[in-house]
Amino acid sequence: xxxxxxxxxxxxxxxxxxxxxxxxxxxxxxxxxxxxxxxxxxxxxxxxxxxxxxxxxxxxxxxxxxxxxxxxxxxxxxxxxxxxxxxxxxxxxxxxxxxxxxxxxxxxxxx
Length: 111
Prior knowledge:
Elements (H helix, E strand, L loop, with lengths): L1 H40 L3 H42 L25
Helix pairs in contact: 1-2
């Protein structure tokens, strides 16, 4: 059952990463389109340069959001993996405990 859970969390992380990358590409395309629009309405070189800098800033933000999303996805996968690996580890079920009996009685000072 463990390999199935690992495969499921890996697939979930992969799909989340694909979604983050796709969103980044859409955001970059929007930034590029906005830059073209601003450049076409610009009256001088300074306004065109400002439009280009805004595009660069928006692309950097999109890239940063993608990396943040990927890091969060990795963290969620690690947390799920840790929880699955720790399930039942080190926990004693009172119904399954065994009592150890010895043939020698304890010293009399403890009775």
